[in-house]
Amino acid sequence: MTRRDKIIEILKERKEISVKELSKIFNVSEMTIYRDIRELEQEGEIKRKHGAILLNEKENTETLVVDTCPICDKPITRAYPYRITVEDYKVIEACCEHCGFLLHSKYEDKKVSAITYDFITENPISAINAWYVVGSSAVACCSPSVISFASKEDAEKFQKGFGGKVMDFMEAYNTIVNNMQISIKSCCHPQNITFNISEMKSNKDKTKT
Ligand SMILES: [Zn+2]
Ligand SMILES: [Zn+2]
Q: Which residues are 112's β-sheet partners?
């Protein structure tokens, strides 16, 4: 029986459990448990709610309407998809950060804002300020996988366990969209979460010394 099977067994008995408890039960790091539950979540076996892990039974499912990703057509199974708002009115959701970046590429000339969710806390974070682990071995939605973190420290911790590379928004974006490993200094948008990728690209050229 795999650890993931055991997690399901535990959930059948207990209804809900926290990552902390699971990491104690299995004597593995919380990061390892997060990876298990992310996989189970993607397979539709479990769901996360207010920090607790629950079996994904019918009565736990709040919405029956399943949207599909505009990029890859996969059903959006994540509780909190990657969400882009274009020109303050058009809201589009993608299955994961990977497709989210590809979605951005269609709107490079537009003012957009984007919300992603911290892998650990599931708290919303402005995508432009998030840190990403790109190409880790953790099974994510689309490959190469992109996983978001609010703090660089958490991203680095995750990277130690599961490989990949820690990147800021523009690096991760370029890696996925242009398949380029170019390094762009993070842009100075600490408060204003609206951004324009075309402008960021040309600004970068201008500031180059
Ligand atoms: Zn997708
Ligand atoms: Zn995806």
A: 86, 195
**Cα of 66 from ligand 1 centre, angstroms:** 13
pLDDT tens digits along 12-64: 888 889 999 999 999 999 999 999 998 898 888 898 887 789 888 755 445 44
Number of CB atoms found within 10 A of residue 167's CB: 25
pTM of the model: 0.64
Give the pLDDT of residue 6.
94
- Assign domain 3-59 to its CATH architecture: Orthogonal Bundle (1.10)
CA of 16 to the centre of ligand 1 (A): 29
Please return the burial class of 16, using the count of CB atoms within 10 Å of its CB with bins 0-12, 13-18 and 19+.
middle
Give the CATH fold of the 82-207 domain. Answer: Bactericidal permeability-increasing protein; domain 1 (3.15.10)
Q: How far is the CA of 96 from the centre of ligand 2 (A)?
A: 4
Nearest listed ligand to the Cα of residue 145: 2
Total Cβ atoms within 10 A of residue 207: 10
* Ligand with smallest separation from the Cα of 103: 1
Q: What are the backbone angles phi and psi of residue 201, rounded to the nearest 5°?
A: -65, -45
